[in-house]
Amino acid sequence: MKIHTKSLAALSFGVALGLLASASADAKDSGFKLMMTPKWTGFPYFEAAGKGGKAAADELGDTFVYAGADHADVSLQVETLENFIAQKPDGILLAAIDLNAVAPVLTKARKSGIVVTTFDADAATQARDIFVNQMSYEQAAKTMLDCALLDAPDGGEIAFVAASPTSPNHMAHIRIMTELTKTNPKYEKFKVVDTQFAGDDDAKSYDVAVNLMQAHPNLKVIISSSAVSAPAAARAIVATGKAGKVFATGFALPSAIKSYLDDGSEKAFALWNPWELGYVATYATHLILAGKLKVKPGETFTAGKAGTYTVGKDGEIVYGKPMIFTKDTVDKAGF
Amino acid sequence: MSARAIWRPTAWEAMLVVLIFAAAAWSATLSPYYLQIDQLLYSTRNFVIPGLLAFGLMVVVTTGEIDISVASTLAVASVALSKFAAVGAPIAVAALLAVALAATLGALNGFFVARLGLPSLAVTLGTMGAYRGLAFIIGGGMGYTSFNDPYLYVGTELWFGVVPASLILFAVVAAGVGFLMHKTTFGRRCFAVGMNKTAAWISGVNVDRLKITAYALAGVLAGVAGLVWIGQYGSARGDNADGMILFVVTAVVLGGVDINGGRGTVLGVVLALLLLGTLRNGMGLANIAGPTQTVVFGALLLIGVLRPFVAGLAQRWRTPPSDPFSRRDDTEQTSESNSITNNITRRSAL
Question: Is A123 on the interface with B (CB under 8 A)?
Fold first, then answer.
């Protein structure tokens, strides 16, 4: 009997809480459970994206979880996603390591009604709802080549370092940059000589950069979309005494390349604001869940204080705010 | 229950069972989503692939050798499978060819180790790189994903809606390897060679052929693991299972297999996999940070390595203080003077 009274009390308490909650906000408009997994945890870039996501969730009254393995391993990422699904979230956000290998588990998530958002690196189109792209591939390619122009105004031989042949954004950047060097007069002074893969691994990127410089004595610029490989290449250039002859550029965290910009061994790197990228991705996921954003080309939405965005083809939303860091601007980056 | 009379768990196996239940209880307190039958069964998929590799490694390790190339062999098998799939080969044919290729790679390891007498760590460190390179060459730059349903069956099918087909495969392979190692002449010879190679040779065991067979078997199981990989992830790439070897070695060592050969049980490896799987599942569901998880698994590997020492302590607690050493000698000391038959018929105390 005592138990009954207790559970009754608990029940009425719960009901009271529920009433309170529904009084304070529309039940369908907040309180979503959002879970984010990056390519791997512990890397400042993804930690910033996680913090941005958390900030958006806090603003919107959602709960937010950020978790994942500490190295980029697709079987571990799939395991993380399976663990997410078991926790019955409303939305999942991820930066995919291998666009195809995550597709089965994401499809399973979508079948159970979970909204799936990719950011930073996309999954197979049919396996997710939206992809919040940091920049259009074209814009990213141009930004990196603009940085290369700051390094080597007279052009010359360039080589690429990507994570792997199956990392979608890196490969698309390389394809477009190669095209631009053949078709765009501004970039025609560059000649692509090599593409290597370093798996987003610091030591491997360093080795690859050293090998590239040995294999191509006239190499001018090493370009990488990987925020791990670009700084590692800069380090390899300084270590092998090639500073001033060869340059590294591409996407990198300001904190990772500040010393090279300051001592003049490198001239320019680029990135976007990962905090805001995570913020926008989380905001968009929330709006879809709340029924305020339809995933149709041309639909627009305002992501809190981060501005207004438009849904493009195949549910792609382009964040699109490149930042170029030079000696003078790197301190103002703020992340 | 005649099986029960035969089956006598070693102290280490008993300890692993206790640890599994402790880990499960801990997981249940960590996450309210842990104790759900479909979740639990589905999560077993995550250790099937490293588990298959671990069984192969276990056979090699009992002979006193090591094979760290098995994850690379898996990658060769998976990309080979993608080539067969691309030309429209039926799964049965493709699987057979891929497994045969993996077996050949395994046997090649065995040849280098047994016939040429090279140290197995050096040989398989070399072939780990060489086979990985081979996988990238066969696989080409782009991954392959256009597998049809029969290829994906073993990794995606759920029997009765909840039991992963890969778990059934895992159980069948575990039983098969268990039978092979503990009930057949081949198994007894593996332990004998691992315990004392010379004595085994004198008593008529063809040590070279045995080792080559053990390596080939590890290759076969890596090939089977490649089939499961394709089924589960549907993505064949040169980097498949790169970095998985640490988990595999942890499972074997934590399972009580003596890294110097001669001792170990398949059941121990199964239990170690269950323990590692339970912890990974529980910590994953609790969204525990990746680095923390890595520390936990590193600690478990350490426990596995320190096992003889830990078990020695446990043994001392259990025996009366008046007579601590004679009992310990009895179970711990690997005496060269022990006859082989004595060593191999007796189950390891740990």
Answer: no
- Chain B partners within 8 Å of A164 (Cβ): 237, 239
Q: Has residue B350 been placed in a domain?
A: no
Tokens representing A3 are 């138990």
Q: What distance in Å separates the CA atoms of residue B298 and residue B247, rounded to the nearest whole number?
A: 9
Q: Do B233 and A73 touch (CB under 8 A)?
A: no
What average pLDDT does range B91-118 have in this prediction? 96
User: Which helix (H) or strand (E) segment is A174 a member of?
Assistant: helix A168-183
Alpha-carbon gap, residue A163 to A151, rounded angstroms: 23
Domain CATH code at residue B151:
1.10.3470
Question: What residues of A are in contact with residue B287 (Cβ under 8 Å)?
Answer: 35, 65-67, 83, 87
According to the model, what pLDDT value does residue A4 have? Answer: 53
**Does B182 score more than 50 pLDDT?**
yes
* Chain B partners within 8 Å of A70 (Cβ): 289-291, 293-294
Q: Does A310 have pLDDT greater than 70?
A: yes
CB contact residues (below 8 A), chain B span 230-259, against chain A? 232-235, 237, 239, 241-244
Question: Is some CB atom of chain B closer than 8 A to the CB atom of A87?
Answer: yes
* DSSP secondary structure code for residue A218 in this structure: T
What is the DSSP annotation of A258-273?
HHHHHTTS---EEE--
pLDDT (tens digit, 9 = 90+) per residue, B126-165? 999 999 999 989 987 677 888 999 999 998 888 988 899 9
pLDDT for residue A7: 52
Copy the structure tokens of residue A45.
């870039």
Reported as a pLDDT band with limits 50, 70 and 90, residue A236 is: very high
Residue A133 pLDDT:
93
**Total number of domains constituting chain B:** 1
Helix B266-285 vs helix B245-254: angle between axes, to the nearest 10 degrees? Answer: 120
User: Two tokens at B173?
Assistant: 């392979």
CA B207: distance to chain centroid?
22
CB contact under 8 A, B234 and A103: yes
In a domain, B33, yes or no: yes
* Domain spans in chain A, listed from the N-terminal domain onward: 28-135+274-321, 137-271
Q: What is the pLDDT of residue B321?
A: 53
Percent of chain B with pLDDT over 70: 87
Could you tell me which chain A residue has the CA closest to the CA of B35? A86
Assess if residue B2 is contained within a domain. no
Q: Check residue A169 and give its pLDDT.
A: 82
Predicted confidence (pLDDT) per residue in A243-256, tens digit: 999 999 999 999 89
Question: Do residues B113 and B211 lie in contact, with contact meaning Cβ atoms separated by under 8 Å?
Answer: yes
pLDDT > 90 fraction of chain A, expressed in percent and rounded = 78
Name the packing angle between helices B11-30 and B307-318 (round to 10°): 100
Tell me whether residue B1 is in a domain.
Answer: no
This model of the complex carries an ipTM of 0.75
**Mean pLDDT of all residues belonging to chain A:** 89
CA distance A68 to B236: 23
Q: Do A98 and B237 touch (CB under 8 A)?
A: yes
Domain pair A28-135+274-321 / A137-271, same fold: yes
Distance CA A87, CA A21 (A): 22
Residue B349: is its pLDDT beyond 90?
Answer: no
Sign of CA dihedral B72, B212, B91, B156: negative
Whether the CB-CB separation of B301 and B99 falls below 8 Å is answered with no
| Domain region containing B60 | 7-345
**SS3 state at B233:** helix
CA-nearest of A151, A106, A152, A149 to A130 is: A106
Write down the CATH number for the domain with range A28-135+274-321: 3.40.50.2300
Domain range A137-271, its CATH number among 3.40.50.2300, 3.30.870.10, 3.40.50.1370, 3.90.1150.10: 3.40.50.2300
